[in-house]
Specification:
By secondary structure, the protein is α+β, with helices and mostly antiparallel strands. Helices cover 47% and strands 21% of the residues. Strand 1 and strand 2 form a beta hairpin. The termini are far apart.
Amino acid sequence: EQSSPGFTLPRVALAVRAGDEVLGSIWAAVRAPLTEEQTASLREVGRLVALHLLSHRVGADVERRQRAELVATVLGGGPAAGEAASRLGLPRRPAVVLALAVCDRQETPASRADGVATFQRVADAFAMHISAVRPGSVAALLGDVAYGIVPVSGGLDGAEQRLSLIHI
């Protein structure tokens, strides 16, 4: 059935949770209120989606830890740095290192866990941004600092002007 312009269907929403943590939500457009059976089915789907999201999160955490170890090795230099750079897919050319940190934040033990999760999201956004703007770049959170390694073409002369295009 086609709807007229401006006509929308009512929606139902279900929070996808793992314990007390909200992982996301499921929305469905409905023509009528859900029956008990439909509500039960939607809740079951929510549990399956939660398992999928948690599984995805675990894989992402492992990938982040591996990337962080490799970035730390590259930044540390030494004999293993070349192999780590290769595993990260960094091209063999000069690079600039960027660092992103939050300064002067008031931290309490209660706010530490929230702060770590928030800064991980900021670091993920930083990594996505530099890799989109400068393909071949990598970033990782090491402690409370997100480091980005940005390969530059044409050597380091004028790299500052070229990197100013990143607009971080």
